[in-house]
Amino acid sequence: MGIDKATVERNGRPMVVGAVEALSGCDHVTVLHRRPESLKSLFGSDVIECMSDDGGGQGPLDGLRTALHHSTSELTVILAVDLVESSRDLIDRLIGALRPEDVVSAAIGRSGQRQGLVSVWRTPAVRPIVDAWFERGERSVHRLLETIDVRWVEVDDRSLRNVNAPSDLAEE
After folding, report:
1. Is 115 helix (H, G, I), strand (E, B) or coil?
2. How many angstroms separate the CA atoms of 156 and 112, rounded?
């Protein structure tokens, strides 16, 4: 996009605010950002923490790895800021679909589009898997999900819409 997606305004507010609202049912929300101090003023709650990726911003897998290492919960929810149609209902569906034997539940659109960046991870079980993947130099969450069992939860394609360019917002 050429600019910081988190602070791009959609419907009069930064996209990161919409993502945090979709996570409103979570006990704790951590926003990962290259410059976390630039976002802290957006949130007044002590439930929301802003921090940098442990690996210095090496892509989505770095963010996933950081989230898993800092999570103290059995489940860790991952939501990319540019998935602008995500909602608390979607997150609740992913959590509800996760069976005891599952390590990940993630969204798949009715058209077959898989989206690993709106997902729920069983934290202790996947930490070593994600670490090993990262240590091998991999950075793709999507490729990682091809190697492990995932509970794919079918959702409306619209809920997986992401914003990658200013023109994507102009089309609204």
Report:
1. strand
2. 10
The answer to whether residue 171 sits within a structural domain is no
Report helix angle 60-70 to 123-135, nearest 10. Answer: 140
Residue 102 belongs to domain with CATH number: 3.90.550.10
Q: Coil, strand, or helix at residue 157?
A: helix
Angle, helices 88-97/15-22, rounded to nearest 10 degrees: 40
Range of the domain at 25: 5-155
Tokens of 55: 């690996």
Is 127 part of a structural domain of the chain? yes
* Residue 166 resides in a domain: no
Alpha carbon of 98 to those of 20, 138, 149, 155, 170: distances in Å? 21, 25, 12, 15, 36
Q: Is residue 69 a part of any domain in this protein?
A: yes
Cα–chain center distance at 83: 9
Q: What is the mean pLDDT of each run of 10 residues along the chain (172 residues)?
A: 75 85 84 79 71 75 90 92 90 94 95 94 96 93 93 94 74 57
Half-sphere exposure in the Cβ direction for 36 (13 Å, CA): 13
